[in-house]
Structure formats: structure tokens, C-alpha cells
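Hello, quick one for you while I still have it in my head. I'm working through a protein record and want to make sense of it properly. Would you mind checking whether the C-alpha cells look sensible for this chain? I owe you a coffee for this, so here goes:
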Amino acid sequence: MCGIVGLHLRNPELYPRLGELLTAMLGEMGERGSDSAGVAVYGDPTWSPPGQGCVSVADLPTGGPDDMSDVTAAVAAELGDDDIGGVAVESSYLLSSATADSGTLLAAVRRAYPQALIAGFGADMAVLKGVGNPRTLTDGWGLAKAQGWQGVGHTRMATESAVTPAGCHPYSVGPGQCMVHNGSFANHATIRRELRSAGVTFDSDNDTEVGARFIAELLARGSDVETALKELCATFDGFYTLLVSNRDSFAVVRDAIACKPAVIAETDDWVAMGSEYRALAGLPGVEKARIWEPEPEVVYAWSR
């Protein structure tokens, strides 16, 4: 049992409140998973400066750098470019570059820190995740102060893989892409072997990472999010609710019998999703929202 939330803002006047609203939503899901949590925030000007390449590092090996200046210096040396910025948020490092795109910056981070856990990469996106109570983590991140147009969050109750930063959601394994998941994939081991044989590497034993990398491979080949999610439904067995996002879109799908709970609410100002209604109850104007439970294997998607 896990909790997932997502908030896609349509009204720019609400952008300064994204972190505040997402913090409250995620806190309401803490009882569904209290061992770890994570968020992806799209559009915060401090964490992911506009127009810059961005990489989120969730964990560095023991004996790593002492502070953010060490990280930026090491990555700058790899790039041969001193124009590297960064913000340390708890044990995470959010790196940005005005001259290198996200893929180039990611390669430099991996050369500098081969054992680092990459939480995400892509323009306008910052990913934070860690082990601990969701409310403690969001307080430590200062999530309530974050801004942006879209956020995705997850609280985890581990069922089949270790409670580590690598096992936390969101899984962001493609440029600007994230996936959060409530449920389990029964045939993930088979699909993992198939992906590995095609050259795909993994950071964890978590079944969700298999789904995220499956989606990322389809998107890299040119599929849109809706097509990729339909292909996932046709390929994966199990019970699940999924939320997949990139910097411009937000999509939800459930398994063939809609086993795992989900509620969607929509107004002119925003679209929101949560594992339970209480995650949505504090959103502005929710009393006027259209509210429904997503149908089995129907992909619901919204774009900026």
C-alpha cells in the first residue's frame, strides 16, 4: 500500500503555491506509506532555473563531498565549464547549467560520481526523495516554499524491495519524465530481463523502476504518453494505479479491474489526483470541482 498524488496547475496565479499545496496533499497520504517519500517539482526557479539543464542527485557514496561547492567544482571540472550552479536540499544535490543541456550535465555528473544515485534529469524539473516519514521529509526539503506549475508525489510502504533512496519513487529515468505507482507488477522480473538484454540498466530491485524504464524506452522511440501507457497495460500483469508526468503533461491509468484506489478532481484552475479524496480536500475551489474515479485501463491525460 502506497500513496500517490499529483497536481497540474492551469492558473499561473497558483504557481507560487505549488509547494504548499503539494506538501499538504502528500502529508495526507503519509498513513498509506510512512517509510519513505519523494516528489518531482516542475518549474521552481531556484531548484531548476528556467532554460537550464538540470540534474537531481539523491544520494552520493559514503565519503563523498562535504558541501555543494565540492559537488559543483567536481562537475565543472568534468565539463570543462565553470558555469555550474547548484542547491543542496537535505542530502540531495540539485545541479544546473546555463550552457549544457540536461543530458550533457548528467554525463558529467556520472563521470564525477559514478556511484551516485541519479534521482532525475531534465529541464524545469527537480526530484527529491529519501527514507523517513513523509512529513519529516517535506519539512526538511522546504517543499512548502517551492513554486511551479506541476508536482508529483509518493509515499511508500515497501512490499518487495529495500527501503533505500534507490527504492523511493518517483522514478525519473528519462529526460523530464517521472512515474509514481501504487500496487505491484507480477511479471516485472521477466520484463526486467528483457530490458536488460536490450542494454537497459537499473538502480534498484523495485518493480516500479521496471515500469518506468519500460515507459521511458517507448517515449524515446517516439511514442506519446497515452500510447506508452496503453502498451504498459497490455504488457504488465498486476494491480496498479500509475501517474506519469513530464514537464508538459500529466497522465493517470489503473489496472484492468481498478484494484488500487484513485480519485481525480478537475477545475478551470487545476487538475489533481490522489489515492484518496482526503489528499484533494484542501485544494482551492475543490467544492466546485468535477470529481470521479478513473475507469479501468482508461488513460486520462492533460497537457499545458
Summary: DSSP finds seven helices and 15 strands in the chain. The two ends are 31 Å apart (CA to CA).
